[in-house]
Design brief:
The protein is globular. By secondary structure, it is an alpha/beta fold. It has helices at about 60-75, 85-90, 95-115, 120, 140-155, 170-180, 200, 220-230, 245-255, 265, 270-280, 295-305, 355-360; strands spanning about 5-20, 25-40, 40-45, 130, 135, 160-165, 185-190, 210-215, 235, 260, 285-290, 330, 340, 350, 360-370. It is built from 13 helices and 15 strands. Strand 2 and strand 3 form a beta hairpin. The protein starts with a strand and ends with a strand. The structure holds 2-succinylbenzoate and magnesium ion (MG).
């Protein structure tokens, strides 16, 4: 496709239930969607940057700005044969991976439509259904948390991940394990601990967790490697792995035994696939993380999760856990067995609800190639 225009949209959508991590609580999402337009095609991508730079340094207003000023103009007027061609066109800009991923993934989304094949096949996927877990945020009370876990288990989810931080960790895990001794259970600290907490973190071993996600600093390999040697529980890195080079370094250093793949954090499908491949080479399983995505990002996560080394249940769960109404049709649904079925429809496999998108849009800007 020749990229004639790029449209940015900000949607504001309240979450059905607030989501709280060690770095803060989100009640309403500001969702940044980008569209690549040309040759009668429209590829869609979602920028998963948060409202504030707390999970990573990226945030929605910064992403909007860098797309309008730098990333968008380097794509406008270009002819794109494949999503894979996008990273090279954006490489002059350092970092800003979530902003780049939105554009690159829109390129893949368009390519799948143009070729008339499902996005998941284009990405190299092979699984006809994907296993789902849920990430459950910090709640106002232990009671509320136990109630939520009960609901998600009843819905069929195969793995429960709990957000933890100092003061919301062992007491919580103790109660959950007492009630459900055998479920697949993991926790995610989002960098809430330091090596001063070593003895405390060792006590997590008694809960037989599937993993502990990103316990230490968001940019660290060295101290995670030291920590992993002292824990029985597998460490999984999220924040710290930003590229396939990172994945190779992290695994060679023994920082973790599991890798969370988030296509936004890594900067697009091309390198996310490469992270998947590196982990596979090391015999390390991966799973697909989530960033409270709307239907666009969610459908892209579903497609990515079909690659063969996505061997553990991901954080990609049903639309209705997040939104009163999702912007895609059908919504992402999870079976009572905790699986999402993959369709053979061409493209992302989920249609857009254009009217709903329009009514949720609070800001819109279109960039056009000089010649058109
Ligand atoms: O660390 O995985 C994380 C949400 C926002 C920022 C970081 C994380 C998360 C989640 C939610 O855990 C996963 C989801 O349900 O989308
Ligand atoms: Mg995480």
């Amino acid at each position: 496709m020749k990229i004639e225009a790029i449209t940015l949209r900000e949607l504001q959508i309240p979450l059905v239930h607030f989501f709280e991590t060690s770095f803060g609580r989100t009640n309403d999402r500001r969702v940044l969607l980008v569209t690549l337009q040309g040759d009668g095609l429209e590829g869609w991508g979602e920028c998963v940057a948060g409202e504030a730079p707390y999970y990573s340094e990226e945030y929605i207003d910064g992403a909007w700005d860098v797309i309008v000023r730098y990333l968008g103009p380097s794509l406008l007027g270009r002819t794109l044969n494949a999503g894979r061609e996008v990273p090279a066109l954006l490489s002059r800009v350092r970092e800003h991976r979530m902003a780049k991923a939105a554009l690159e993934n829109a390129g893949w989304d368009a390519e799948a439509q143009e070729k008339g094949i499902p996005l998941w096949k284009l990405l190299g996927g092979s699984q006809g259904e994907i296993a789902c877990g849920v990430s459950i945020g910090i709640q106002d009370s232990h009671e509320q948390l136990l109630q939520k876990i009960e609901t998600e288990l009843a819905a069929g989810y195969q793995r429960i991940k709990l957000k933890v931080k100092p003061g919301w960790d062992v007491d919580v895990l103790e109660k959950v394990r007492a009630r459900w001794p055998n479920i697949l259970l993991s926790c995610d600290a989002n960098s809430a601990y330091t090596l001063d907490d070593l003895e405390h973190l060792k006590t997590f071993d008694r809960f037989k967790l599937l993993m502990i996600e990103q316990p230490l600093w968001s940019d660290d390999f060295y101290f995670h490697a030291r920590l992993q040697k002292q824990l029985q529980t597998a460490i999984c890195l999220d924040e710290a792995i930003r590229s396939s080079r990172d994945a190779e370094a992290a695994l060679e250093l023994g920082t973790c035994r599991i890798v969370n793949v988030k296509v936004g954090r890594i900067g697009g499908f091309t390198d996310a696939i490469a992270v998947h491949d590196v982990a596979q080479r090391f015999g390390v399983p991966v799973w697909c993380g989530g960033m409270l995505e709307s239907g666009i990002g969610r459908s892209h996560n579903v497609a990515l999760s079909t690659l063969p080394n996505f061997k553990l249940p991901g954080d990609v769960s049903a639309s209705k856990r997040y939104w009163k109404e999702d912007i895609i049709e059908p919504e992402v649904e999870v079976s009572p067995q905790g699986m999402i079925a993959i369709t053979d429809k061409p493209g992302r496999g989920y249609d857009l609800r254009s009217d709903l998108i329009e009514s949720l849009t609070v800001r819109k800007e279109t960039l056009r190639a000089a010649s058109s």
